[in-house]
Design goal:
The chain is α/β, with parallel strands linked by helices. Among the domains are: 1-34; 40-140; 253-286, no CATH class; 288-342, no CATH class. 64% of the residues lie in helices and 13% in strands. The chain has 13 helices and 7 strands. It has helices spanning 3-33, 142-173, 177-184, 186-207, 211-218, 220-242, 245-252, 254-276, 279-286, 288-310, 313-320, 322-344, 346-356, and strands at 42-49, 60-63, 66-76, 86-93, 105-110, 117-122, 134-138. Strands 1-4-3-2-6-5-7 form a 7-stranded mixed beta barrel. The longest helix has 32 residues, at 142-173. It is elongated and about 215 Å long.
């Protein structure tokens, strides 16, 4: 073979080998980075949602949590229904079509609040299963969004709480407030230490027989006194039970009971007689005649007092007549002078008396 032919054949073999190598490299790269097996067949399903925030092309498609495909496309739909504003195209492996009932529902899910979103198919209960190019209904995604918003609210509240706790810890560490002073103020610590020392002294005094508290704890004299007092109380109670003394007789002697019963019966009889109008007191309670007499007497007494106040009669003149009062006062004064003269010179009056006789 001429040299030119050999060179062309060599270049042809190199070119073929390069093409085959590039094809093999492309196949390996596709197998490593591709999301689908090379010889796996897929069917297309559709679903509509009102919001697809966070959902990207190539996101997993799961059936009750089991991955069965991937999201092929996410785009705006041409429908006027706001609940179907987003059209999502799903690529599902053909082997799983028979496991997806036609009443299955799709929803936008995430592994956690901050995780990437994916489409999950909730398996329905119908006997008929989906086919290629079937459109699946969707669940309302507002519930998930509300959960996410609530999660953000909880995180914000938690962050505020953490900030407040940090502020409190900073204040405590800086010695502010009562708790901070408890932790960093040596003065309070020394006071507590002094209190503990005093308590230890008191405990030491209690453990010894010195002092009032120590004697109360260890001295048997107090116990003996208490025991003696209890013995005397027992003796007193025994005497009462036996009817000794005045208190014992009050408890045991039936004579006192009989006297009290007789007194009560007499009181009852007295009250019965009073209610029956017997005796002076009974008549005072029941007799209309006596009441009229008392009323008439009171009326006469009232009339007499009116006359006395008006100056009628001797007593009335004594009360209101100043001249009669002055005459009586003068006579009393003269009688008093006469009595004084009689005490001073009784012979004069006796002599006169004898001359008369």
């Amino acid at each position: 073979m001429p040299a030119a032919g050999k060179a062309s054949w060599a270049r042809l073999k190199v070119g073929v080998m390069a093409v085959v190598g590039m094809a093999i490299l492309a196949l390996v790269i596709f197998l490593i980075t591709g999301s689908h097996p090379l010889f796996q067949s897929y069917s297309t399903l559709y679903t509509y949602m009102n919001d697809a925030t966070g959902l990207t092309q190539g996101a997993p498609v799961t059936l009750n949590g089991l991955t069965i495909g991937a999201v092929k496309d996410v785009q705006l739909s041409t429908l006027s229904d706001p609940q179907k504003a987003i059209k999502i195209t799903l690529q599902v492996e053909d082997q799983f079509l028979s496991a997806i009932p036609v009443d299955s529902l799709t929803e936008l899910s995430a592994a956690n609040l901050l995780g990437a979103k994916f489409v999950n198919i909730n398996k329905g209960t119908a006997r008929q299963t989906v086919q290629d190019n079937t459109t699946l209904a969707t669940l309302n995604t507002r519930g998930f969004e509300d959960v996410v918003k609530q999660g953000y609210s909880v995180l914000s509240s938690l962050q505020l709480t953490v900030n407040k706790v940090n502020d409190i810890v900073d204040q405590i560490q800086s010695g502010k407030g009562s708790i901070g002073k408890l932790l960093v103020d040596e003065t309070l610590y020394n006071r507590l230490l002094d209190i503990v020392t005093e308590v230890q002294k008191i405990a030491t005094a209690l453990n010894s027989t010195q002092g009032t508290l120590g004697k109360l704890v260890y001295d048997p004299a107090l116990y003996n006194q208490v025991q003696g007092s209890l013995g005397r109380v027992d003796s007193l109670l025994a005497g009462l039970q036996q009817g000794e003394g005045t208190a014992g007789k009050l408890l045991k002697d039936p004579e006192l009971y009989n006297q009290v019963r007789d007194s009560v019966q007499q009181m009852h009889q007295l009250l019965t007689d009073l209610n029956a109008g017997k005796g002076t007191a009974g008549k005072l309670l029941k007799s209309d005649e006596l009441a009229n007499q008392i009323s008439a007497t009171v009326s006469r007494l009232d009339t007499m007092l009116d006359k006395i106040n008006a100056g009628q009669g001797t007593i009335g003149q004594l009360l209101v007549n100043q001249q009669l009062y002055d005459n009586l006062n003068g006579a009393t004064r003269q009688l008093n002078l006469l009595m004084q003269d009689f005490r001073a010179n009784p012979k004069k009056f006796l002599r006169i008396k004898l001359a008369i006789f």
